[in-house]
Amino acid sequence: xxxxxxxxxxxxxxxxxxxRLPWTDIAMLINAIEKTPAGKQYSANKExxxxxxxxxxxxxxxxxxxxxxxxxxxxxIADREKMKLQEILGQRAxxxxxxxxxxxxxxxAELFARIHSADPDAALDLLAEMRDKKxxxxxxxxxxxxxxxxxxSSSAAPTFLMPKDALHRKDALALIDEHKSxxxxxxxxxxxxxxxxxxxxxxxxxxxxxxxxxxLQLVDGFMFMTGSPGNNKLAFQNLLxxxxxxxxxxxxxxxxxxxxxxxxxxxxxxxxxALDIHQVGIIEFDETGSEMKIVRRPKGDAxxxxxxxxxxxxxxxGIPDFGMV
Length: 325
Hints:
This protein is of the alpha/beta class. The protein has 16 helices and six strands. The protein has a domain at 156-322: Trna Endonuclease, Chain: A, domain 1 (3-Layer(aba) Sandwich). A six-stranded mixed beta sheet has the order 1-2-3-4-5-6, sandwiched between helices. Helix 9 (106-118) packs antiparallel against helix 10 (120-132). The longest helix has 20 residues, at 61-80. The model is unreliable at 155-167 (pLDDT under 50).
């Protein structure tokens, strides 16, 4: 496939949805297209590249990005769990796409990757079950909910967390992971809660996107503000200092606040604009942590001054979803 031209590869995606082209074939074709000289030129403009693919395949951009992300994550899982997969699948040498052959439908493969991210053992147990019988999607979603809740409820307490907020924290974290396509335009970003220990900065969660070659494409930070030690001018200034400092380490920083936070989003937003902290976004949750909305999106993608320190630390500590541990 790699020796074929841009036009030849692109032609294979023509009307892929109506032709019911397997999702793995679509994702592999996209990867191959992006590696061609013409594809590299197209992909330099992400908006144009994905819009072109969406028109060609008749799938949405979001669906295509999710397919590619799931393929990358699935291949990373297969590489990382090679010995266990050999035992589960009864193969001395794992055949290409052997994992996807068992998982089948794209939606099932995507759910499996998310389960593995939260609890690898639970994912492998599910795979063994799927090898022998059809497992309903509703049951797979139940497993995802179970492992996600366990993962989030066991995480360390976030920034400014007050006891009265603790009951709803895991719901808010689960919402971010569930609706990350609203933040990134696709699901090809993995979000890790308390996975990384940085030397010079603390952050509640990070969002990471990698290319097919494993190169880091973005690292964002998530800062939770569900409570505050005070409601005075000095406390607000300290909060802004914390935001400004953290924003120097991450491409974007998402401030996550509930509706009862002491300072309204409008006041924080106004202060951020006045301070020219452009790479900050704000996510607001309701009192129960069951709904979220984006009240401010980050502006610009300029690399902040300390971003290289963050990238270096991420690579040193590894990225589980992409087989780099």
